[in-house]
Structure formats: structure tokens, C-alpha cells
Write a structure and sequence with these properties.
CATH superfamily: Phosphatidylinositol 3-kinase Catalytic Subunit, Chain A, domain 1
Protein name: FERM domain containing 5
Largest sheet: 5 strands, mixed
Number of domains: 1
Strand order of the largest sheet: 2-1-5-3-4
Structural class: alpha+beta
Helix content: 25-40%
CATH architecture: Roll
Distance between the termini: 55 Å
Radius of gyration: 17 Å
Length: about 120
């Protein structure tokens, strides 16, 4: 019985992987996700962590082993997009700049965009 429980917990650990996402202010957000989690799940976790509601301006970028940058596709599995082994490292980045950041409704969105401009 104990061996069955242990093998079950080892299998569940096998299905999980760690992700570290560097945020716009260079701080890091680390989480554990299921291996089959889609990009949208990770993006929603980050946005929730930041209280970010105006999500359309942001995306997650990663660098493959050949040093090529890619946007994480939200409809696809993270593990299938990453060509490296866990733990995965990615970056939250601005994907689209609004023409007038002052017109944004959420203060946190303006803050994130202004933080990026200061770096």
C-alpha cells in the first residue's frame, strides 16, 4: 500500500514543473505548474499576482536553446513550446504599447508600463 502511495506521489511530481517568470521590475515570480498547462494558465497566474486587469498589452517571452526569442502561445502547452527541460525561465514583457498610457483605466497597468520605460 505504501509503495503504491509513493509511486503515485512520484508520478504527480513527474507531471509538475517549476517556472520562474522575470517581471517588468526585474523581480521574479516562481510557481509550480502541471506539465500539460497551457500558456494562458501561467499568464493568468502572473496577472493575478500583479493584480493586472488590462492584460492585452502584455505577453510572456522565452528564449530557446538556439537563443531565439519567442512569445509563449496561450493556447498551447508550455512544456511543448519550451525546447529545454524544466525548470522553465521566462519573462513578462510588453507586447503592445498603448498610444496614450495616461488613458489606461487601471493604475497598475500604467505603473507597469512606466516601470519598463525607466529601466
Amino acid at each position: 500500500m505504501l509503495s503504491r502511495l509513493m509511486s503515485s506521489s512520484i508520478r504527480s511530481l513527474d507531471r509538475e514543473c517549476n517556472c520562474t517568470v522575470r517581471l517588468l521590475d526585474d523581480s521574479e515570480y516562481t510557481c509550480t505548474i502541471q506539465r500539460d498547462a497551457k500558456g494562458q494558465y501561467l499568464f493568468d497566474l502572473i496577472c493575478h499576482h500583479l493584480n493586472l486587469l488590462e492584460k492585452d498589452y502584455f505577453g510572456i517571452r522565452y528564449v530557446d536553446p538556439d537563443k531565439q526569442r519567442h512569445w509563449l502561445e496561450f493556447t498551447k502547452s508550455i512544456a511543448k513550446q519550451m525546447k529545454s527541460q524544466p525548470p522553465f525561465t521566462m519573462c513578462l514583457r510588453v507586447k503592445f504599447y498603448p498610444p496614450d498610457p495616461a488613458a489606461l483605466r487601471e493604475e497598475i497597468t500604467r505603473y507597469e508600463l512606466i516601470t519598463l520605460q525607466r529601466i
